[in-house]
User: Fold this.
Amino acid sequence: MPAALRLLAPVLDPTRDRLAARLLPGRIVELSGLPEGGGSTARTTTAVSLVRYVQASGDTSAWIQPRGGPLFTPDLQDAGIDLDALVVVHVGTAPLLHGLCKAAELLLRSGALGLVVVDLTDAAVEARGGPAMTAWLGRMLGLARQHDSRIVLLTEKPTHADSLGTLVSVRIESQRHRVHAQSWGPEGAFTVEHHVIKNKSGAPFDVVPDRHRAPDGLGA
Assistant:
């Protein structure tokens, strides 16, 4: 996984124009894209930004991933994440989809979390919109609405692929672009643009790109 990019000050009012401010509680959001290694996909970067936003509002977040998953704690700390307000769960049970979603269900039932991120990138085959995935989405959505929580599901798929299911409110693809040295940012600066693939509300969903800089030593 590429190192998480540290967020810079946004150009416009962050409470109005940032993606994080537009993703309301009680909904399921899918962050999709191609594999992140060496590409322009910024799925993890965007999820980290959502954690940071929720923490700034005073809420605790959880991140659920397969055992040995790619989340790297030092990068999260560099990105301004309060590690004391982030629960990281590693799931090693099979089938993987069941373990990841069951962990999310248990955490949501606590009512103590403002955001639950579930990394489904290694469970792509199991999570292809079948009845098991639909059932899990229904249970998680009900709990998110009950406890005013956000659910973010990370998936690995091309743009033309279907979302996880009809209960996904918004599907976003985030892509990072290096900023030229003569532009606004310092060396190693990026913008992350968010492309809306699905939006069930039907309302306009335009957000400004986020500005980031790479951790020291990241060259791409």
